[in-house]
Amino acid sequence: MIEHLADAAPEPDPSDLALTFGLLGGLCLLFVAAIVVVVVLVLKRRREERQ
């Protein structure tokens, strides 16, 4: 029974894996970019308040 299930499970295509990792990488980059933008905006506001 277990061997039958193992045969039925399709092997993931390399292109599917690349697409998945590409999407994950893109989301991570967007997340990091958003954090950087927020930090820069906060620092600019603090500088303006000092002056």
UniProtKB/TrEMBL annotation:
Annotated keywords: Membrane, Transmembrane, Transmembrane helix
Superkingdom classification of source: Bacteria
Species of provenance: Virgisporangium ochraceum
Ranges annotated as spanning the membrane: 20-43
The protein, known as: Uncharacterized protein
